[in-house]
Design brief:
By secondary structure, the protein is α/β, with parallel strands linked by helices. The protein contains 32 helices and ten strands. The strands form three sheets. It has a five-stranded parallel beta sheet, with helices on both faces. Strands 8-10-9 form a three-stranded antiparallel beta sheet. The protein has a two-stranded parallel ribbon with strand order 6-7. α5 runs parallel beside α7 (203-211), α18 (398-431) packs across α19 (441-450) and α30 (640-649) crosses α31. Residues 19-347 form the Origin recognition complex subunit 3 N-terminal domain.
């Protein structure tokens, strides 16, 4: 057979072995071989435990270094305590989410056998919805339920990124299925060892494993069926069908579109090999609403998000991530950021019981309280009310400030609780009306904090619909309010009206009249056309057709409308009841957007370019900074990669490596004539490899001794 010359293949990828051709230098005065260490496992473990106990608090010392060690640790313990409670509630919501789907799919997998489905593959079509980010959580819950609780057998999750070809998919399937069992004895290992002569993508390996694990089913979960290659998926299903008498396969197929589209994707011959049921899944927005309501508007929440951060997180959820886990991670980061940088956050540890708060607050804490903007507005309000004595105590008496903080912090927390109850009342009211746009509570939360909700169409449309409700709808609304809203300001005045409406309905039914009372404000049967005179005539005819119970019901509806309008106006009025008027709201509400935007929506390119072009901004060293603060240009004291990058900016599209090396050596050597050339070469090769790793340069075929420029600063 003739041998063909090998073709020159160029692979433009990062080679991790490039850096291996570097020099190693040992500083003078150090031994080449380290001293031998005795193996002391017991002592080492004891030392590790002691180190964990005596580990320093990860939070920094605040108040210009005057914060004591006790308050520093108290701040960290408060953060751990509050977030642990919030995380526990969030985990409970996530575990309960899709509980019905989990129960149904779990029961399906338990009862699934090829005989029951006429020799076809038992298949569960999980209609998970268009939110792809929520599919991962759902299939994780399914895998944990089937594997750990039901102990039905191994669960292998296959994603489209893992199924580049059939061999790779089978290799992953066999590896994941056979490695999930932890209780394999020696005899079972001998049985599995017999299959080592087989190829690692041969399903006979899995067949041998199933023979040693009788009663175990192999559940294959395909998360994103739409992204799967149809040919690979069809071949997989055909293989599963051929091995079904030896390997008890069960398929879980995640569908984001519809069953019809899934059927159109596969050949009919493949569809005939499957038999099963379809299962609907709750929407991810409902899970987000539950987590948000628990962490922001419930009475259990202690730290809440401000309007700016809330808008940023919800915008990022809608437009980018659509992931519940990402939202929970951002919420945890908000907790951490608040306690990390706010020395007054220790007050949140005494939110339920203020005993001992005065002893914890030092003079520096009191001074920090006086510098809070809400405290300043509080003092200015006292000054406007001519309470001069009160103002003098607040500005000069530290003990009086401590007592004021202990008294007012609970009132400030009640603002968040009352606002959450008002939002719950508005959400319930809008859900009982015919309003098409059902805005969730988390969409209204930021508007309520910023004062935009009072004049928004959400409140206005609800109040107008409230006056037109019939007795059945209004009683349903009042019943939900009594069950879900724990605000005496709205429930106590509405409860007697609810009883009167029930009594009117019973009287109407007893007299043989209609069971559903209508209000005189109900104009659903009226047309929009007509003159002013005709409208007055129709209105008069409508009022004359009302029964006695309808007239009394209309008066009660007007009272419900008045109470509801007053309640919503009081809680959503920004001038009287807004967040800015709440004392010490900076402690209870976290509203700094910049840390979140820098972490969850970073701009790495500008940061890298600045770090390489101006390293003195990050290193803060005197050798790279001029005395007058101006730009210093290229200096030999700068990091080698920074020198290469600044020379790179001055070059064209193709860079001669020798010219770049000459310029680099002249900069790094400076005035030293006997600068070590091998050291400079090692630094040059290392910096050039880092530039290629960052994506600034690549090799080119145009000229062998040149590299190509890939990025220009600011473009």
């Amino acid at each position: 057979m003739e041998s063909t010359p090998p073709e020159e293949v160029y692979v433009d990828e990062f080679d991790p072995k490039e850096h291996q051709g570097c020099y190693i230098f040992t500083p003078d005065g150090e031994e080449d071989r380290p001293t031998k260490r005795r193996k002391t496992k017991g002592k080492q473990r004891a030392a590790e435990k002691t180190a964990i106990v005596e580990e320093k608090c990860p939070f920094p010392v605040l108040l210009d270094g005057k914060e004591t060690e006790s308050t520093l640790r108290l701040r960290y313990r408060t953060y751990c305590k509050l977030w642990e409670a919030q995380e526990k509630r969030t985990k409970a919501i996530l575990d309960s989410f899709n509980s019905k789907t989990l129960d149904d799919v779990s029961a399906f997998v338990k009862d699934a056998t090829p005989e029951k489905y006429e020799g076809k593959i038992p298949t569960a079509l999980v209609l998970a919805g268009p939110n792809i980010a929520s599919h991962e959580l759902l299939f994780q819950q399914l895998a944990q339920r089937i594997r750990n609780q039901d102990k039905t057998g191994p669960v292998v999750a296959l994603a489209s990124k893992d199924a580049t070809n059939l061999k790779t998919t089978l290799r992953k399937l066999i590896r994941d299925a056979t490695q999930q069992d932890e209780g394999v004895d020696d005899e079972e290992e001998d049985i599995i060892r017999k299959s080592t002569k087989l190829l690692n993508y041969d399903l006979q390996i899995l067949q041998t494993w199933c023979e040693s694990h009788e009663g175990q089913k192999v559940t294959i979960a395909i998360q994103d069926s739409e992204a799967f290659d149809s040919n690979i998926l069809s071949d997989l299903i055909s293989l599963f069908s051929s091995y079904l008498d030896r390997i008890p396969f069960v398929l879980l197929v995640g569908i984001a579109t519809s069953v019809e589209i899934f059927h159109d994707k596969l050949p009919k011959s493949t569809i005939r090999l499957m038999r099963g049921n379809k299962f609907d899944v709750e929407r991810a927005e409902e899970c987000l609403a539950q987590i948000f309501n628990d962490s922001m508007t419930s009475d259990k929440a202690v730290l809440r998000l401000g309007a700016t951060v809330c808008d940023f997180l919800l915008e990022r959820y809608r437009d980018h991530t659509q992931s519940i886990q990402a939202f929970v991670a951002a919420l945890k980061y908000a907790y951490m950021s608040h306690f990390y940088a706010n020395p007054l956050s220790i007050i949140l540890g005494f939110i339920d019981n203020a005993d001992g708060l005065g002893e914890v607050l030092s003079a520096e804490h009191v001074e920090a309280v006086r510098n809070v903007p809400s405290f300043r507005r509080y003092v200015e309000g006292k000054m406007a009310a001519k309470e001069v004595g009160e103002v003098r105590k607040l500005l000069t008496d530290d003990n009086y400030v401590r007592r004021t903080v202990a008294e007012k912090i609970l009132e400030s927390r009640n603002y968040g609780i009352e606002l959450g109850q008002a939002l719950a009342f508005l959400e319930i009211g809008r859900s009982c009306t015919l309003i098409q746009n059902k805005t969730p509570r988390y969409e209204l939360y930021a508007k309520a904090l910023s004062g935009e909700l009072q004049t928004s169409p959400s409140v206005r449309d609800f109040l107008m619909s409230l006056k037109r409700m019939n007795s059945t709808t209004l009683l349903n609304l009042l019943e939900k309010v009594m069950q879900e809203v724990q605000a005496p300001a709205i429930t106590e005045p509405l409860r007697p009206l609810q009883e009167k409406i029930k009594k009117l309905v019973e009287e109407a039914e007893a007299s043989g009249g209609k069971k559903n009372l209508i209000s005189e404000f109900d104009t659903t049967n009226n047309t929009l056309r007509g003159t002013a005179v005709s409208k007055k005539v129709r209105l008069g005819e409508q009022k004359s057709s009302l029964t006695k119970q309808d007239t009394e019901y209309s008066a009660l509806v007007q009272q419900v409308y008045t109470i509801s309008e007053s309640y919503l106006t009081t809680n959503f009025n920004s001038s009287q009841h807004g967040l800015q008027n709440v004392l010490l709201h900076e402690i209870l509400f976290y509203d700094l957007r910049s840390p979140h935007s820098a972490v969850f929506a970073p701009r790495p390119r500008s940061t890298i370019e600045r770090g390489l072009s101006q390293p003195q901004d990050y290193l803060a060293c005197s050798c790279c900074t001029s005395a007058d603060g101006e730009e210093v240009g290229i200096r030999g004291t700068q990091p080698p990669t920074s020198i290469i990058y600044q020379l790179y900016l001055e070059s064209g599209a193709l860079i001669n490596i020798y010219d770049l090396w000459s310029a680099f050596y002249s900069v790094i050597a400076g005035d030293e004539e006997d600068f070590d050339v091998p050291t400079a070469q090692a630094l040059f090769y290392k910096s050039l490899a880092e530039m290629r790793f960052l994506g600034f340069v690549k090799h080119t075929k145009k000229k062998t001794d040149h590299i190509a420029k890939l990025a220009w600063k600011g473009i």
